[in-house]
Specification:
Blueprint (H helix, E strand, L loop, with lengths): L1 H16 L17 H7 L6 E2 L2 H4 L1 E5 L3 E5 L6 E5 L5 E3 L4 E2 L5 H8 L2 E7 L2 E7 L6 E7 L2 E8 L4 E9 L3 E6 L5 E2 L5 E7 L6 E2 L5 E5 L5 E4 L11 E4 L15 E2 L3 E2 L11 E6 L4 E9 L4 E6 L7 E9 L3 E5 L8 E5 L8 E9 L5 H15 L12 E6 L1 E5 L4 E5 L3 H13 L5 E6 L22 H14 L3 E7 L2 E2 L20 E3 L7 E4 L2 H16 L5 E5 L8 E3 L2 E3 L1 H16 L3 E5 L11 E5 L11 E2 L2 H6 L5 E5 L6 H11 L2 E6 L20 H21 L5 E7 L3 E6 L4 E5 L5 E3 L2 E3 L3 E5 L2
Parallel strand pairs: 28-31, 28-43, 31-32, 32-36, 36-39, 39-40, 40-42, 42-43
Antiparallel strand pairs: 1-6, 2-3, 3-4, 4-5, 7-8, 7-14, 9-10, 10-11, 11-12, 11-13, 12-27, 14-24, 15-24, 16-17, 16-21, 17-41, 18-23, 19-20, 21-22, 22-27, 23-24, 25-26, 29-30, 33-35, 34-35, 37-38, 44-45, 45-46, 46-49, 47-48
Helix pairs in contact: 8-9
């Protein structure tokens, strides 16, 4: 019933405001939010509908959308001119259950946390607080100068209506902090954009967990006390300790951790109204988290947003002995960046997660972050492990798994079987083995055949059409093998960061400073290029970002990201570069994306996995999966490869993986080539045929049907039907057997 009332009010509101459109640029400037304005923004306490005619005014419109604003709270309503569907940044329905703070949170355009002493839990907003506010209207939106006199800080919020949606941002230069008692901790811009009450709307929240996941907008009946929260581009180790969440006998990590956010996006779709948005954090993503709360998590409203971190509290030990005591400190200076979100509004048949993926792909191409790669033909990835190390009487000894001669032999065997389209990353090729890092020059371990022999293999592979890359973890230094006194990362509390491996031989790794990573990576590349070969797989720095202190100076995640981006851009200009699970800000420098997650983290509140990242990248850049070896359900994983258009990856050794049991690669429990030969041949035959049918096309549609059936649509008209169920299914006249797929051309 609530949904029907809402839609009637929306239509009446739009019709009425159509008469006042010509006069919107004469709206008087609001100087401050007084008590009456605050009351208006918090309409009712007993479950009532807001009257938009009294609270919002039309401020801008174009051919597709109208933008309305509430001057008191700066809350927005976006209207699709074609259908009259609306999406709000504050709820039209007040259930009367929320206190003043939560009501203000639901309605305010900006929600801040304040740091005072050791407390960072107090909220500042535009509804419950007294604010000085000057709103200036423009032809496509407005600019609001906002100041909190009690806290002595302020900022400017700018909102612009575009042909594709709205841009909302806070310029860094506008943020002022004039007092010493209160400081800004975090800033949320339109935290309730697309908000809905319980199950008033059909649809879902899209979250960037793994490849992608959906949280349905059904009534969760209070089952969950927490929602999705994750830092964009991973946690900041500059403020955290290395830990494993689930250890057996306090040593062995038994459960894989959650995926980290690869791309700074989220979205909400109201499928009943055929209106959705994709949000892209365009600036400030390096120090922001994405939060998604289904109804029942504190409030009965579905919402998702980005939380920008300006300052944090951290624990400062009083000495090197942490047991002797510690105290809380606040960062001396806030982080500096514009805080900017692009909201792409989608309507009609595009108002879904597939439309979101299409919008993100278009955005990345237009911005030059992605470029269509010329080398897009199907390849099977067969990676090799060269040497590892295990403890010996004195020091360590080599464990040789796959030599250069072994790789020649495996290549020949696969080529004889018709597998000629290969892609290889060679790990553990360097002198000292896999964990002798960082790699400072191109020098192969004599145990695998030495530098000369490896160089010849790479050259011969190129002649045979095989793409061959050497693995280089540019982030870590092994303190057991190399001097880790200098050029290593210290956290903001000046303690050296140590990453515990929970393995037998090398128990911890240290992080290099970004400048040192760049210097050594370029040094290695130069020595490699002198041999006339140019294929490198970079890892470590591709999916890690942190704040750190070095030489008495503090460096933010923005500094870290800038350094890594410059390093990889320089390398990309002179060699072929493939990246291991790279964060989106590095995509302009990749020739291939490695280790694409096929699933989300399977959090209890997630209702469905969707291949969002795969839909964005398929047909633009080659994408390779995580290793097939370690998947429990091989049949389902194979269908995921077909569904996502991802190329398969195998981690191979000539020798038995049992030889690795006392090394840091003890978790590689199955890798011997002889075990996987037939599987490699089968995967290649089937997946190559599928990829030939969609060559040069991108994924434009993806549907989740009943009975575990998926339908993937490509831009060339090809449809792929996938049946994950235990029985035969027929969809749109296409019959698909259990755990199988069918490719249908126009």
């Amino acid at each position: 019933m609530a949904t029907k009332i809402k839609k009637i009010l929306c239509v009446l509101f739009v019709m009425l405001l159509g008469f006042v459109a010509p006069f919107t640029h004469n709206i008087p400037v609001t100087q401050a939010a007084g008590e009456e304005e605050k009351k208006e923004a918090e309409t009712g306490d007993t479950g009532v509908w807001n009257d938009w005619n009294e609270t919002h005014r039309l401020t801008a419109e174009n051919d597709k959308f109208r933008l309305y604003v509430n001057e008191a709270s700066l809350a927005l309503v976006i209207e699709d001119k074609k259908t009259g569907a609306c999406m709000e940044s504050s709820p039209s329905y007040n259930d009367g259950k929320n206190n003043k703070t939560w009501s203000a949170y639901l309605n305010s355009a900006l929600v801040l946390t304040i740091i005072r002493g050791n407390d960072d839990t107090k909220q500042a907003d535009l509804v419950k607080d007294q604010v000085n506010k000057k709103v200036t209207y423009t032809k496509d939106g407005f600019s609001a100068d906002i100041y909190w006199p009690k806290y002595k800080f302020g900022m400017t919020l700018k909102v612009q209506l575009t042909e594709k949606g709205i841009t909302a941002y806070v310029p860094d230069e506008s943020i002022t902090e004039d007092g010493d008692e209160y400081k800004i901790g975090t800033v949320c811009i339109y935290p309730c954009m697309g908000v809905s009450y319980l199950d008033d709307n059909e649809g879902y929240i899209f979250i960037p967990d793994g490849n992608g996941a959906l949280i349905y907008l059904n009534d969760k009946e209070g089952r969950f006390n927490t929602g999705f929260t994750s830092m964009i581009y991973g946690e900041d180790v500059g403020f955290t300790e290395s830990s494993a969440s689930n250890l057996l006998w306090n040593r062995y990590q038994m459960i894989t951790g959650a995926n980290q956010i690869i791309a700074p996006v989220w979205g909400i779709a109201h499928t009943d109204d055929k209106m959705a948005y994709l949000a892209v954090v365009e600036e400030g993503a390096e120090r922001a988290s994405i939060e998604a709360c289904p109804n029942g998590v504190t409030l009965d409203y579905n919402r998702a947003y980005a939380k920008f971190i300006l300052r944090k509290l951290y624990t400062q030990p009083t000495s090197n002995n942490t047991s002797s005591g510690s105290f809380h400190m606040m960062e001396a200076d806030r982080s500096h960046s514009d805080l900017k979100i692009q909201f792409f509004f989608l309507t009609g048949e595009e108002a879904n997660y597939a439309g979101m993926a299409n919008a993100y792909r278009e955005y990345l191409l237009d911005a030059g972050i992605l470029e269509i790669q010329g080398n897009m033909e199907y390849r099977t990835r067969v990676d090799f492990l060269g040497t590892e190390r295990e403890d010996f009487i004195i020091g360590t000894k080599a464990v040789v798994m796959t030599t250069v001669d072994d790789i020649y032999e495996i290549y020949k065997d696969l080529q004889t079987a018709g597998v000629t389209d290969l892609f290889t990353v060679y790990k553990g090729w360097q002198k000292g083995g896999l964990w002798n890092v960082p790699i400072t020059k191109y020098k192969a371990d004599s145990k695998i055949g030495g530098t000369k022999k490896l160089t010849q293999l790479i050259q011969d592979a190129k002649v045979d059409g095989i793409e061959f890359y050497l693995y280089n973890d540019a982030l870590r230094i092994n303190p057991d093998e190399q001097n880790a006194t200098f050029n290593v990362v210290k956290k903001v509390n000046k303690k050296r960061y140590e990453e515990y491996t929970y393995k037998d031989v090398y128990e911890k790794m240290i992080y290099l400073t970004p400048a040192r990573s760049g210097s050594l990576l370029n040094k290695f590349a130069d020595s490699y290029l002198k041999k006339g070969i140019d294929g490198v797989c970079v890892a470590g720095i591709t999916d890690t970002m942190f704040s750190y202190s070095y030489g008495g100076n503090f460096y933010s995640r923005y500094d870290c990201a800038d350094s890594y981006a410059k390093t990889l851009a320089e390398l990309d200009g002179k060699m072929s570069l493939v990246l291991e699970q790279p964060s989106a800000y590095l995509w302009s420098d990749m020739d291939a994306f490695l280790d694409m997650p096929m699933y989300a983290s399977d959090f209890i509140y997630e209702d469905e996995n969707v291949p969002f990242l795969s839909m964005v990248l398929k047909g633009i850049v080659p994408v390779y999966s995580e290793y097939v070896n370690f998947e429990a359900n091989k049949d389902e994983f194979f269908l995921k490869l077909v569904e996502t258009g991802t190329y398969p990856s195998f981690y191979l050794t000539k020798e038995s993986s049992a030889d690795l049991i006392y090394t840091n690669s003890s978790d590689v429990y199955s890798s011997q080539y002889d075990v996987y030969k037939n599987e490699i041949i089968e995967y290649t035959e089937k997946l190559k045929e599928v990829n030939q049918a969609v060559a040069g096309a991108v994924i434009t549609g993806h549907e989740i049907m009943n009975n575990d059936v998926r339908v993937v649509t490509y831009s060339n008209g090809v449809e792929i039907f996938l049946n994950y169920s235990t029985g035969e299914q027929t969809v749109d006249g296409v019959r698909v057997e259990s755990m199988s797929y069918k490719v249908v051309s126009e």
